Structure formats: structure tokens, C-alpha cells
Amino acid sequence: MTSKRLTVAFALTQATYWMSYSTAIGFAAVYLQSLGCTNTWVGLVLAAGCLAGTLLGALLSDRLDRGLATPSGLLPFLLLGQIIPAVYMLAVPAPSGVPVYLLYTLYITCAIGVNSPDMKVYADLCEGGAVIPFGVCRAMGSVGCVIVSLGVGTSIQYISPRALPFIALVLAVLGWIVRFRIYRHPSIGLVGSRKARGVSLPRFISANRRYCVLLLGLIMIFFAYCTTNNFRINIVREVGGDTAQMGVLAAYMVVTEVPVMLLHGKYSHKWDHVTLLRFSFICFILRITAFAVASSMWQLYIAGTFQAASFALYAAAIVPYVTAVTDHRDAAKAQNLAFSVITAGSLLASLISGALLDLMSVHQVLWIVCGVCIAGALTAIFALDAKKARAAAAAEKL
Question: How many helices (H) and strands (E) are present in the chain, helices listed first?
């Protein structure tokens, strides 16, 4: 396949990945609450799924970098882990109790885990000479999220909560179809075939301590970010909205991401990735502050507008930044760790914010996580390795 066709193919994998991720995480509270779950139980299921997904991603990326597994070999297990829970939740008239909690946890785990082979495929294709603009591909992921946000939210509100497992099943099958060919491209496994393979995860952490400090700051940022996402229904209900309005708000927020991601590749040469990331960290603070002060739906839309300058800019800039400051032999591992900060933040948000929401008001919880976000942003800003990133950018131009 040509670079253009590979870009289209990888854009489709990003679309199906983020559609599945948004369905599993973004609507977990709505679906589980419809089954009678409290915020605390929703938080526990989300936390367990995010923790398991993070650990699974780290394990898979380590094995991929060391040539012990292939993306095409892992794919069937990861997608079956989404299909089986969806079939169960559809087959059982009123799923409840431990079985559905465990299966929903499995669903989240595998929805997150697919990112590891996806990013390994991306790294190997680029190393093999393909030119694939990640920002454009990631933008298609955001477009997919818009479709899911509108479709799932409206379907749950006006049809049935069972719309979620049906959509989950469709997305898993679709994900299998779009990945089938690209996962078998000749470039895949190029790195693993070399004598020099990636190091183990502990050795990687020891050799990249500054990068790990950045990850710590990002976890704090995404603790705040994921609080507003995982419990978005609580925030919307606080100002008088419902599930359908939550879906529209979620779709609006994702729509604001698309222009930023599409234009990133075209104009990123004017600003280095370090500058863009620092700006995005500041905008994460502004975003959570705006949610904390919002008292109506239109104010929530204003807060959601910061999605473009915070998450969208971060998502477009973090992948090339990680590529610049880490060894390509550890590409899957490095990229998975950068992605895992989102699931780690979601885990903490699910556990801590879920419990807090059963004890205090929505606005009180948002101000608490705002303080955490400020601390995380400051940590991340100072941990960025501008010298190394700029040296890599200069070498790439030669």
C-alpha cells in the first residue's frame, strides 16, 4: 500500500479505536447507573478496567518491542475481549451484579489494550518509510467519537441502555475488519527482526527518568480531565441536563478537536512540540476551572470549548514528542506509557472522584481536582526535555 492508503487505513483504526474507547469509558456511568449502580461502584468498575487496561498495555508493548509477540497475533484476543461482554449484556434481559461488573471490566480492559498493537503498527510503518501524519489520523478518531457521543447518548435516552452493548459489539467487529490488512503489512515487525531490540520496561524507566517525571505530571492532569469525562452525566445533571444533552455536549467537545488535529501537521513546523505541549497543559487548567464554575448548559459548552486547545493539541503533539525523546527500539513501550497516563488518570478519577461525588457536591469535587491539575501541569511543564526534542527535530531536517 502507498503512504496515502496507509494513512487512510491507519485513520480507520484510530476511528474504531476511539469509538470503542469512548463507548466503554465515556458512557460507563450512564449504562451502569441504569442498572442501579452507585457512583462508587461505577468508579470501582472504571478503576479496575483502567488499571487492567494499563497493565495489559504495558505488558503487550514490552513483548512487541522485544519481538515476543506480533500485532496480528494479539488482535483476535483483544477484540474477543470486547465481543464476549457485549454479547452477554445483550443476551441477558436485565444484567446485574458481579457478572456484569466483571465483564464490563473486561470490556474496558480490552478496549484500552488495542492501543498497544496499534501504536506498534504505526511506529513500524513510519520506520519502514511510510509518511503517515498522525494528527490527521487522530482527527478521524475524534470524528468517530462525535458519532458515538451522539449515537450512544441519544439511543440510551430514548431507546434503551441496551443500546450500549449493541454498539460495542458492532464496533468490535468493525475494528477487526479495518485492522485485518494493515496489521499484515510487510513493514510490521521490522524492528523486532533486528538484533538490537527494545529493553525491558524496568530498564526503560531507569534510562528515561525525566520522561517518567513528565508521565507523573500527566497523570495528575488526566485525573482532572477524566473526572469531567467519566462523570460527565453528574455534571450535566447538576445544571439540569439529561443523558441526551450529555451526548450532544460530548459530541461538541470532540468536534472542537478535529480542526486542531487536522491543522497540526501543516503548521507544527512553526512551533516545536515542547511549546505546543506547554500551552496545552495551561489550557487543561483553564478547562477544569471553567467546568468548576459552570452553572448552566451553555456554560458547560464554553468549558468544553477548551477541549481544542487542551486535549486536542496534546494528542497531536505528544506522539511526535515521544518519538523525538525516546529510542525507536522502545517505540511501542514509550508510546504506550504516554497513552497510559490517560487510563491511569481515569483510574484515579474513577476511584477518588467517584467516592467523593457520593459525599459532596459536584462543584466541590471539581475544585479539588482543579488543584491537582495545576500541580500536574507545573510538573509536566518542567519535565519536558526541550533540548533533546529540538536536537531530534534538527536531525530530522538534515
Answer: 19, 0
Total Cβ atoms within 10 A of residue 383 = 17
Q: Is-contact 225 288, C-beta < 8 A?
A: yes
Written as one string, the DSSP assignment of 312-352 is: IHHHHHHHHHHHHHS-GGGHHHHHHHHHHHHHHHHHHIIII
- Only one residue has cell 468544553, namely 304
**How many beta carbons lie within 10 A of that of residue 359, not counting itself?**
10
Q: Which H or E run contains 357?
A: helix 354-357
* Per-residue exposure over 163-177, b if at least 16 CB sit within 10 Å of its own CB, e if not: bbbbbbbebbebbbe
Helix (H, G, I), strand (E, B) or coil at 118: helix
Q: Which of 31, 59, 46 is nearest to 108 (CA)?
A: 46
Residue 200 DSSP class: P
Q: Is 36 exposed, middle or buried (0-12, 13-18, 19+ CB in 10 A)?
A: exposed
User: Alpha carbon 363 to chain centroid distance?
Assistant: 25
**Residues 68 and 116: beta-carbon distance below 8 Å:** no
Task: Write the CB contacts of 8 (distance below 8 Å, at least 6 apart in sequence).
Answer: none
Instruction: Decide if 108 contacts 43 (C-beta within 8 A).
Output: no
Read off the C-alpha cell for 221: 492532569
Could you tell me which residues come within 8 angstroms of residue 181 by beta carbon, excluding any fewer than 6 positions away?
Answer: 1, 9
Whole-angstrom distance, CA of residue 70 vs CA of residue 65: 9
Sequential pLDDT tens for the chain (398 residues): 567 888 888 999 999 998 998 889 878 887 888 777 777 788 888 888 888 988 898 888 888 877 788 888 888 899 999 999 999 888 877 666 778 889 999 999 999 999 888 988 888 887 777 788 877 888 888 888 878 777 777 777 677 777 888 989 999 999 989 998 888 877 766 544 444 466 677 788 887 888 899 999 999 999 999 999 888 889 999 998 887 788 788 888 888 888 888 877 665 566 678 889 999 999 999 999 999 999 899 999 999 999 999 998 998 888 888 888 887 777 777 888 888 888 788 888 888 988 898 889 999 999 999 999 999 999 999 999 877 666 655 555 54
